[in-house]
Amino acid sequence: MFFGKSMLFQHDDFHPANLLIHNRRFSEIIDFQRMDWGGPTHDLQKLGSFSSRISIPFTKGMVDGYHRNTKLYESFWELYTLYSAMHLVSALVWGKKMGIFKRMRSYSMNVLEDHDFFTKTVPNWYEK
Fold first, then answer.
1. What is the pLDDT of residue 5?
2. Which residue, 95, 94, 89, is CA-closest to 118?
3. Residue 63, Cβ density class (10 Å: 0-12 exposed, 13-18 middle, ≥19 buried)
4. Among 70, 75, 20, 55, which Cα is nearest to 126's?
5. Is residue 48 within 8 Å of 110, Cβ to Cβ?
6. Model's pTM, two decimal places?
7. Mean pLDDT of the chain
8. What does the buried/exposed string (b/e) look like for 24-49 if buried means 16 or more CB atoms within 10 Å of the residue's CB?
9. Could you tell me which of 47, 32, 49 has the C-alpha nearest to residue 92?
10. CB–CB of 4/79 below 8 Å?
11. H or E element: which one contains 29?
């Protein structure tokens, strides 16, 4: 698998709030101000914070789709978990700046609980 090895274009803020739905169908992705190049696993870092709160099937589908429905290796989950943990710090700083610290703390706690406080790499939402 190429995860962690290739540099690809990434949205870098991909979550349901940045998707437009028209007539109950996917229409567009918006909010590209954070776009950059990087490893594709990095683009999934916000799944546990935002997407899993809205739809577990969507969130699982994102992971499976990125892997083209092939086997998920532990190395993917280790990197995903690292990026998720790193996102918690920036999310709390951003939440404080934007006046939504309590909400971001709640989202961060969900990520911690999904990973049993980082004692495991595969999040609970994926195992459901």
1. 57
2. 89
3. buried
4. 55
5. yes
6. 0.84
7. 90
8. eeeeeeeeeeeeeeebbbbbbbbbbb
9. 49
10. yes
11. strand 25-29
